[in-house]
Amino acid sequence: MSRVSPVWLVLGSILSVQVGAAIAKGLFDEVGPSSMVWLRLLTSTVVFLVLIRPRVRGRSRRDWLAVLGYAISLALMNWAIYQSIARIPLGLAVTLEFLGPLAVAVLGSRTRRHLLWAALAGLGVLLLGLGPSELDLVGVAFALLAGVGWAGYIVTGKLVGGRWQGLDGLAVSSTIAALLVTGPALAVDPGDLWRPQVVILGVAVGLLSSVVPYSLEMIALRRMPPRVFSILMSLEPAAAALAALVILQEALTPLELVAMACVVSASIAAASEKAPQDSATS
Questions:
Q1: Which of the four, 215, 236, 245, 262, has the lowest number of CB atoms within 10 Å?
Q2: 253's torsion region: left (phi>0), alpha (psi -120 to 50) or beta?
Q3: What angle do helix axes 137-163 and 168-187 make, rounded to 10 degrees?
Q4: Are 92 and 256 in contact (CB under 8 A)?
Q5: pLDDT value of residue 121
Q6: What is the pTM of this model?
């Protein structure tokens, strides 16, 4: 894995997580989004604990604070985005959610032009509100909340990657995140959560949306700055829209596609800029 470019690792994680999200949304008629998130995180926790067997002894207070922050970000990001895609199209939800990592990228660029990229992304969000159909405001709010979690995931993921060896920090964080969403999952009607077909597909979602992408991203974050990682995630909205179209037959309107293009273009533009420290070391 060390010979594989971190760029390819991130691209692989993007494809995996969006296919998993589309499959999960297809199950919402049978099981609620909170329960699906719990099943997803439970799957990843079991896999990580069995395969990784993380070492937790002798850890410092800062190590545990980093893991706790990462776990909270994981739980918030996953729970909020599933609440969102239960209410609005997957591609739009991920476009709004992407404002989180885009903010990390723009703030990390340290150039005056970052305001232009922020304005372009803001234009995309404005266009979403001008679409022919009214967006569910609760779904929009959940998508933005997921963006906050995603930004925290990037920042804390870098800290965990630097303090915990291998995937130990990820395994511990996934366990804590699963515990955090247990309450919301059990408080709401779980539907047909334990039906064999749902469990099988839920496990597949856990592998596609958690185990594979988080493992790839944890490795990638060790080898690239959080700003660069955030920029590479600019393909997330497009990947989400494509996965939704193929798996869910969920098409976006031309105006919604233009809005998505604004957000993606803002990230691509920011990607072309280098922070001062990047230029000094290149």
A1: 245
A2: beta
A3: 150
A4: yes
A5: 80
A6: 0.82
Give the Cα separation of 256 and 251 in Å (integer): 10
* Tokens representing residue 54 in the block: 């993380």
Are 88 and 253 spatial neighbours (Cβ–Cβ below 8 Å)? no
Instruction: For residue 20, give the nearest of 75, 94, 70, 92 by alpha carbon.
Output: 94
CB of 16 closer than 8 Å to CB of 209: yes
DSSP state of 58: T
**Euclidean distance between CA atoms 59 and 170, whole angstroms:** 14
Nearest-Å Rg of the Cα atoms of the chain is 18
Using CA atoms, how far residue 46 sits from 16, 33, 101, 195, 216, in Å, is 19, 20, 28, 19, 18
At 224, give phi and psi (nearest 5°).
-150, 155
The three-state secondary structure class of 154 is helix
SS3 state of residue 80 = helix
- Strands (DSSP E) contained in the chain are none
Residue with tokens 């280098």: 274
pLDDT tens string 95-144: 888 888 777 767 766 666 777 777 888 788 778 766 666 778 999 999 99
Angle between the 114-129 and 254-271 helix axes, to the nearest 10 degrees? Answer: 170
49-89 residue pLDDT tens: 888 888 888 888 888 999 999 999 999 999 999 999 999 99
Q: Where are the alpha helices (DSSP H) in 164-282?
A: 168-187, 196-206, 212-221, 226-232, 236-243, 254-271, 276-281
12 contacts: CB under 8 Å, gap ≥ 6: 212, 213, 216
Which of 198, 178, 179 lies closest to 190, judged by CA?
A: 198
